[in-house]
Amino acid sequence: MNDQAGRLRQLVNERKRAGEEPHPPSNELSELESASRSRHRGARVLAVTGGKGGVGKTVIAANLALSYAMSGKRVMMLDADFGMANLDVVLGLAADKNIRDVIEGQSTIEDIIVEGPKGLRLIPAGSGIQSLANLTQSQVTALLSDVLNYDEHVDLFIIDTAAGIAGGVAGILYSADEVIIVAEPEPTAVLDAYAVIKTLVSKRPDARTYVTVNCVKSEEQGLIVFKNLESVASRFLEKNLVYLGAIPLDERLKDAVKMRRPSVIEFPNSVFSIAIRKVMAAIDRQSSSEEKLSGGISGFFNRVLNDGMNDRA
Ligand SMILES: Nc1ncnc2c1ncn2[C@@H]1O[C@H](COP(=O)(O)OP(=O)(O)OP(=O)(O)O)[C@@H](O)[C@H]1O
Ligand SMILES: [Mg+2]
Fold this sequence. Notes:
Blueprint: H1 3-18, H2 26-39, E1 44-49, H3 57-70, E2 75-80, H4 87-90, H5 99-103, H6 109-112, E3 114-115, E4 121-123, H7 137-148, E5 156-161, H8 168-175, E6 178-183, H9 187-203, E7 208-216, H10 219-237, E8 242-248, H11 251-258, H12 263-266, H13 271-287, H14 296-305
Parallel strand pairs: 1-5, 1-6, 2-4, 2-5, 6-7, 7-8
Antiparallel strand pairs: 3-4
Helix pairs in contact: 1-2, 1-7, 2-14, 3-13, 7-14, 8-14, 9-10
Protein backbone atom coordinates (compact mmCIF):
# COMPACT_ATOMS: atom_id res chain seq x y z
CA MET A 1 0.00 0.00 0.00
CA ASN A 2 1.38 3.42 -0.82
CA ASP A 3 1.93 6.01 1.87
CA GLN A 4 -0.81 8.37 0.88
CA ALA A 5 -3.51 5.73 0.71
CA GLY A 6 -2.38 4.41 4.09
CA ARG A 7 -2.57 7.81 5.75
CA LEU A 8 -5.90 8.63 4.18
CA ARG A 9 -7.35 5.30 5.21
CA GLN A 10 -6.14 5.91 8.76
CA LEU A 11 -7.78 9.34 8.75
CA VAL A 12 -11.03 7.92 7.43
CA ASN A 13 -11.04 5.12 10.02
CA GLU A 14 -10.37 7.56 12.83
CA ARG A 15 -13.26 9.68 11.65
CA LYS A 16 -15.52 6.66 11.34
CA ARG A 17 -14.75 5.72 14.94
CA ALA A 18 -15.30 9.28 16.08
CA GLY A 19 -18.73 9.36 14.41
CA GLU A 20 -20.18 12.54 12.96
CA GLU A 21 -17.61 15.31 12.72
CA PRO A 22 -17.23 18.48 10.75
CA HIS A 23 -15.80 18.38 7.24
CA PRO A 24 -12.09 17.48 7.36
CA PRO A 25 -10.05 20.64 7.86
CA SER A 26 -8.40 21.69 4.66
CA ASN A 27 -4.89 21.68 6.12
CA GLU A 28 -5.29 17.97 6.87
CA LEU A 29 -6.30 17.30 3.32
CA SER A 30 -3.59 19.57 1.95
CA GLU A 31 -1.02 17.67 3.93
CA LEU A 32 -2.28 14.40 2.52
CA GLU A 33 -2.36 15.90 -0.90
CA SER A 34 1.23 17.05 -0.73
CA ALA A 35 2.19 13.58 0.51
CA SER A 36 0.45 12.20 -2.53
CA ARG A 37 2.29 14.55 -4.82
CA SER A 38 5.67 13.49 -3.58
CA ARG A 39 5.15 9.74 -3.21
CA HIS A 40 2.21 8.44 -5.16
CA ARG A 41 1.80 8.51 -8.88
CA GLY A 42 -1.59 6.85 -9.01
CA ALA A 43 -4.00 6.71 -11.91
CA ARG A 44 -4.09 9.35 -14.60
CA VAL A 45 -7.17 11.44 -13.99
CA LEU A 46 -8.75 12.70 -17.20
CA ALA A 47 -11.99 14.68 -17.41
CA VAL A 48 -13.93 15.05 -20.65
CA THR A 49 -15.92 18.23 -21.08
CA GLY A 50 -17.08 20.84 -23.56
CA GLY A 51 -18.82 24.16 -23.61
CA LYS A 52 -22.07 22.89 -25.10
CA GLY A 53 -24.54 20.09 -24.63
CA GLY A 54 -24.68 17.31 -27.18
CA VAL A 55 -21.18 17.78 -28.67
CA GLY A 56 -20.20 14.16 -28.05
CA LYS A 57 -18.57 14.26 -24.61
CA THR A 58 -20.16 11.03 -23.43
CA VAL A 59 -19.59 8.98 -26.59
CA ILE A 60 -15.97 10.16 -26.73
CA ALA A 61 -15.32 9.49 -23.02
CA ALA A 62 -16.90 6.02 -23.21
CA ASN A 63 -15.14 4.92 -26.38
CA LEU A 64 -11.81 6.37 -25.30
CA ALA A 65 -12.04 4.53 -21.98
CA LEU A 66 -12.92 1.31 -23.76
CA SER A 67 -10.03 1.73 -26.21
CA TYR A 68 -7.69 2.02 -23.24
CA ALA A 69 -9.28 -1.05 -21.65
CA MET A 70 -8.87 -2.97 -24.94
CA SER A 71 -5.19 -2.04 -24.95
CA GLY A 72 -4.77 -3.71 -21.57
CA LYS A 73 -5.08 -0.72 -19.24
CA ARG A 74 -7.12 -0.89 -16.04
CA VAL A 75 -9.79 1.76 -16.50
CA MET A 76 -12.40 3.19 -14.20
CA MET A 77 -15.01 5.74 -15.24
CA LEU A 78 -17.02 8.19 -13.20
CA ASP A 79 -20.26 9.52 -14.62
CA ALA A 80 -20.22 13.05 -13.26
CA ASP A 81 -23.14 14.28 -15.32
CA PHE A 82 -25.46 14.39 -12.35
CA GLY A 83 -28.28 15.95 -14.34
CA MET A 84 -28.54 13.65 -17.34
CA ALA A 85 -26.43 10.64 -16.60
CA ASN A 86 -26.27 8.31 -19.60
CA LEU A 87 -22.78 6.88 -19.63
CA ASP A 88 -24.11 3.47 -18.57
CA VAL A 89 -26.46 3.44 -21.56
CA VAL A 90 -23.71 4.41 -24.03
CA LEU A 91 -21.53 1.64 -22.60
CA GLY A 92 -24.41 -0.82 -22.93
CA LEU A 93 -24.70 -1.29 -19.17
CA ALA A 94 -27.57 -1.05 -16.76
CA ALA A 95 -26.91 0.68 -13.46
CA ASP A 96 -29.58 0.25 -10.82
CA LYS A 97 -27.61 1.89 -8.01
CA ASN A 98 -25.40 4.94 -8.14
CA ILE A 99 -23.08 7.24 -6.24
CA ARG A 100 -26.05 8.68 -4.38
CA ASP A 101 -26.54 5.32 -2.63
CA VAL A 102 -22.93 5.53 -1.41
CA ILE A 103 -23.27 9.11 -0.27
CA GLU A 104 -26.44 8.24 1.63
CA GLY A 105 -24.66 5.34 3.29
CA GLN A 106 -26.83 2.60 1.80
CA SER A 107 -24.18 1.03 -0.42
CA THR A 108 -20.44 0.82 -0.82
CA ILE A 109 -18.66 1.81 -4.02
CA GLU A 110 -18.15 -1.89 -4.61
CA ASP A 111 -21.94 -2.45 -4.59
CA ILE A 112 -22.60 0.21 -7.20
CA ILE A 113 -19.70 -0.31 -9.60
CA VAL A 114 -20.84 -1.86 -12.83
CA GLU A 115 -18.42 -4.09 -14.73
CA GLY A 116 -18.33 -3.25 -18.39
CA PRO A 117 -16.70 -4.77 -21.44
CA LYS A 118 -12.94 -5.45 -21.32
CA GLY A 119 -12.87 -5.10 -17.53
CA LEU A 120 -13.86 -1.43 -17.59
CA ARG A 121 -15.52 -0.33 -14.37
CA LEU A 122 -18.11 2.41 -14.08
CA ILE A 123 -19.17 4.46 -11.08
CA PRO A 124 -22.67 5.52 -12.14
CA ALA A 125 -23.91 9.03 -11.43
CA GLY A 126 -26.63 9.87 -8.97
CA SER A 127 -29.18 12.37 -10.14
CA GLY A 128 -30.09 15.19 -7.81
CA ILE A 129 -26.56 15.67 -6.49
CA GLN A 130 -25.71 19.31 -6.90
CA SER A 131 -22.05 19.20 -6.03
CA LEU A 132 -19.77 16.70 -4.40
CA ALA A 133 -18.14 19.59 -2.55
CA ASN A 134 -21.26 20.18 -0.46
CA LEU A 135 -21.45 16.75 1.11
CA THR A 136 -21.55 16.29 4.85
CA GLN A 137 -18.71 14.67 6.75
CA SER A 138 -20.32 11.23 6.94
CA GLN A 139 -21.04 11.35 3.23
CA VAL A 140 -17.44 12.33 2.52
CA THR A 141 -16.23 9.51 4.71
CA ALA A 142 -18.44 6.97 2.95
CA LEU A 143 -17.20 8.03 -0.45
CA LEU A 144 -13.54 8.51 0.34
CA SER A 145 -13.02 5.29 2.29
CA ASP A 146 -14.46 3.28 -0.58
CA VAL A 147 -12.56 5.06 -3.32
CA LEU A 148 -9.27 4.34 -1.56
CA ASN A 149 -9.66 0.64 -2.16
CA TYR A 150 -9.45 1.19 -5.87
CA ASP A 151 -6.69 3.74 -6.09
CA GLU A 152 -3.86 1.32 -6.56
CA HIS A 153 -5.68 -0.91 -9.03
CA VAL A 154 -6.53 1.59 -11.74
CA ASP A 155 -4.31 3.04 -14.48
CA LEU A 156 -6.80 5.54 -15.86
CA PHE A 157 -9.71 7.30 -14.20
CA ILE A 158 -11.86 8.92 -16.90
CA ILE A 159 -14.67 11.29 -15.96
CA ASP A 160 -17.60 12.27 -18.15
CA THR A 161 -19.01 15.67 -17.20
CA ALA A 162 -22.01 17.80 -18.01
CA ALA A 163 -21.62 20.75 -20.39
CA GLY A 164 -20.23 24.08 -19.26
CA ILE A 165 -18.94 24.95 -15.83
CA ALA A 166 -22.12 25.33 -13.83
CA GLY A 167 -22.64 23.83 -10.39
CA GLY A 168 -20.80 20.69 -9.50
CA VAL A 169 -19.00 20.38 -12.83
CA ALA A 170 -16.54 23.12 -11.92
CA GLY A 171 -15.13 21.32 -8.87
CA ILE A 172 -14.72 18.12 -10.86
CA LEU A 173 -12.96 19.87 -13.72
CA TYR A 174 -10.62 21.89 -11.53
CA SER A 175 -9.63 18.69 -9.73
CA ALA A 176 -8.60 16.70 -12.79
CA ASP A 177 -5.02 16.94 -14.00
CA GLU A 178 -5.85 16.55 -17.64
CA VAL A 179 -8.97 17.88 -19.30
CA ILE A 180 -10.21 17.07 -22.79
CA ILE A 181 -12.31 19.84 -24.30
CA VAL A 182 -14.67 18.60 -26.98
CA ALA A 183 -15.36 21.31 -29.55
CA GLU A 184 -17.43 21.30 -32.71
CA PRO A 185 -16.95 23.31 -35.91
CA GLU A 186 -20.01 25.56 -35.36
CA PRO A 187 -18.98 29.07 -34.33
CA THR A 188 -21.10 29.01 -31.16
CA ALA A 189 -19.58 25.69 -30.09
CA VAL A 190 -16.09 27.16 -30.58
CA LEU A 191 -16.97 30.19 -28.44
CA ASP A 192 -18.46 27.95 -25.74
CA ALA A 193 -15.34 25.78 -25.76
CA TYR A 194 -13.17 28.87 -25.34
CA ALA A 195 -15.27 30.03 -22.38
CA VAL A 196 -14.61 26.72 -20.60
CA ILE A 197 -10.89 26.87 -21.41
CA LYS A 198 -10.72 30.41 -20.03
CA THR A 199 -12.31 29.46 -16.71
CA LEU A 200 -10.26 26.30 -16.46
CA VAL A 201 -7.01 28.18 -17.04
CA SER A 202 -7.89 30.78 -14.40
CA LYS A 203 -8.41 28.03 -11.79
CA ARG A 204 -5.93 25.41 -12.92
CA PRO A 205 -3.22 26.96 -15.06
CA ASP A 206 -1.20 23.77 -14.59
CA ALA A 207 -3.84 21.35 -15.91
CA ARG A 208 -2.98 19.94 -19.28
CA THR A 209 -5.70 21.07 -21.66
CA TYR A 210 -6.44 18.96 -24.69
CA VAL A 211 -8.77 19.81 -27.55
CA THR A 212 -10.52 17.48 -29.93
CA VAL A 213 -12.93 18.67 -32.60
CA ASN A 214 -15.90 16.37 -33.09
CA CYS A 215 -18.28 15.89 -36.02
CA VAL A 216 -15.90 17.28 -38.63
CA LYS A 217 -16.28 16.80 -42.36
CA SER A 218 -12.52 16.88 -42.90
CA GLU A 219 -9.27 16.89 -40.96
CA GLU A 220 -8.71 20.39 -42.20
CA GLN A 221 -11.98 21.62 -40.70
CA GLY A 222 -10.85 20.32 -37.28
CA LEU A 223 -7.44 21.88 -37.62
CA ILE A 224 -8.91 25.30 -38.44
CA VAL A 225 -11.06 25.18 -35.28
CA PHE A 226 -8.09 24.14 -33.19
CA LYS A 227 -5.81 26.83 -34.65
CA ASN A 228 -8.42 29.46 -33.79
CA LEU A 229 -8.72 28.27 -30.22
CA GLU A 230 -4.97 27.88 -29.90
CA SER A 231 -4.15 31.38 -31.08
CA VAL A 232 -6.74 33.03 -28.81
CA ALA A 233 -5.68 30.91 -25.82
CA SER A 234 -2.02 31.66 -26.30
CA ARG A 235 -2.59 35.38 -26.88
CA PHE A 236 -5.11 36.12 -24.12
CA LEU A 237 -4.53 33.33 -21.61
CA GLU A 238 -0.87 32.48 -22.26
CA LYS A 239 -1.95 28.87 -22.33
CA ASN A 240 -0.72 26.18 -24.68
CA LEU A 241 -3.41 23.81 -25.86
CA VAL A 242 -2.64 20.31 -27.04
CA TYR A 243 -4.46 19.09 -30.15
CA LEU A 244 -5.69 15.49 -30.05
CA GLY A 245 -7.02 15.54 -33.60
CA ALA A 246 -10.44 15.62 -35.20
CA ILE A 247 -13.27 13.09 -35.01
CA PRO A 248 -15.40 12.72 -38.15
CA LEU A 249 -19.15 12.74 -38.28
CA ASP A 250 -20.00 9.04 -38.53
CA GLU A 251 -23.47 7.60 -39.09
CA ARG A 252 -22.34 4.26 -37.72
CA LEU A 253 -21.75 5.88 -34.35
CA LYS A 254 -25.41 6.89 -34.28
CA ASP A 255 -26.32 3.25 -35.04
CA ALA A 256 -24.07 2.06 -32.22
CA VAL A 257 -25.70 4.51 -29.77
CA LYS A 258 -29.18 3.33 -30.81
CA MET A 259 -28.10 -0.28 -30.34
CA ARG A 260 -26.62 0.62 -26.95
CA ARG A 261 -23.35 -0.87 -28.10
CA PRO A 262 -20.01 0.95 -27.84
CA SER A 263 -18.67 1.89 -31.26
CA VAL A 264 -15.11 0.66 -30.66
CA ILE A 265 -16.49 -2.81 -29.96
CA GLU A 266 -19.35 -2.98 -32.45
CA PHE A 267 -17.66 -1.12 -35.31
CA PRO A 268 -13.92 -1.18 -34.56
CA ASN A 269 -13.02 -0.10 -38.08
CA SER A 270 -15.48 2.77 -38.39
CA VAL A 271 -14.04 6.23 -38.94
CA PHE A 272 -15.19 7.24 -35.43
CA SER A 273 -13.47 4.25 -33.76
CA ILE A 274 -10.26 4.84 -35.73
CA ALA A 275 -10.28 8.52 -34.73
CA ILE A 276 -10.80 7.62 -31.06
CA ARG A 277 -7.73 5.39 -31.14
CA LYS A 278 -5.75 8.26 -32.66
CA VAL A 279 -6.93 10.49 -29.82
CA MET A 280 -5.70 7.86 -27.36
CA ALA A 281 -2.31 7.72 -29.08
CA ALA A 282 -2.06 11.52 -28.97
CA ILE A 283 -2.76 11.52 -25.22
CA ASP A 284 -0.16 8.84 -24.67
CA ARG A 285 2.45 10.82 -26.58
CA GLN A 286 1.94 13.66 -24.12
CA SER A 287 2.26 11.61 -20.97
CA SER A 288 5.51 9.86 -21.72
CA SER A 289 7.53 13.02 -21.35
CA GLU A 290 6.20 14.14 -17.96
CA GLU A 291 5.84 12.60 -14.52
CA LYS A 292 2.38 12.09 -13.09
CA LEU A 293 2.12 13.51 -9.61
CA SER A 294 -1.62 13.88 -9.31
CA GLY A 295 -2.16 11.56 -6.37
CA GLY A 296 -4.39 9.40 -8.50
CA ILE A 297 -8.05 8.87 -7.66
CA SER A 298 -7.55 9.76 -3.98
CA GLY A 299 -5.85 13.00 -4.94
CA PHE A 300 -8.69 13.80 -7.30
CA PHE A 301 -11.43 13.13 -4.74
CA ASN A 302 -9.49 15.03 -2.09
CA ARG A 303 -9.54 18.08 -4.31
CA VAL A 304 -13.19 17.69 -5.26
CA LEU A 305 -14.29 17.18 -1.68
CA ASN A 306 -12.12 20.05 -0.58
CA ASP A 307 -14.23 22.27 -2.79
CA GLY A 308 -12.33 21.82 -6.01
CA MET A 309 -9.35 24.07 -6.38
CA ASN A 310 -10.96 27.17 -4.94
CA ASP A 311 -8.09 27.64 -2.54
CA ARG A 312 -5.66 27.96 -5.39
CA ALA A 313 -7.72 30.42 -7.38
N1 LIG B 1 -18.73 11.94 -34.40
C1 LIG B 1 -20.06 11.77 -34.39
N2 LIG B 1 -20.70 11.29 -35.48
C2 LIG B 1 -22.04 11.11 -35.48
N3 LIG B 1 -22.83 11.36 -34.45
C3 LIG B 1 -22.26 11.83 -33.31
C4 LIG B 1 -20.85 12.05 -33.21
N4 LIG B 1 -20.58 12.51 -31.97
C5 LIG B 1 -21.76 12.56 -31.33
N5 LIG B 1 -22.77 12.17 -32.13
C6 LIG B 1 -24.21 12.06 -31.81
O1 LIG B 1 -24.51 13.01 -30.83
C7 LIG B 1 -25.21 12.38 -29.77
C8 LIG B 1 -24.90 13.07 -28.48
O2 LIG B 1 -23.62 12.70 -28.05
P1 LIG B 1 -23.24 12.70 -26.50
O3 LIG B 1 -24.35 12.16 -25.69
O4 LIG B 1 -21.92 12.05 -26.38
O5 LIG B 1 -23.11 14.27 -26.27
P2 LIG B 1 -22.79 15.00 -24.89
O6 LIG B 1 -21.86 16.11 -25.21
O7 LIG B 1 -22.35 14.00 -23.88
O8 LIG B 1 -24.24 15.54 -24.52
P3 LIG B 1 -24.74 16.09 -23.09
O9 LIG B 1 -24.26 17.50 -23.01
O10 LIG B 1 -26.23 15.97 -23.19
O11 LIG B 1 -24.14 15.21 -22.04
C9 LIG B 1 -24.78 10.93 -29.84
O12 LIG B 1 -25.77 10.05 -29.31
C10 LIG B 1 -24.60 10.69 -31.30
O13 LIG B 1 -25.83 10.32 -31.88
MG1 LIG C 1 -23.06 13.54 -21.98
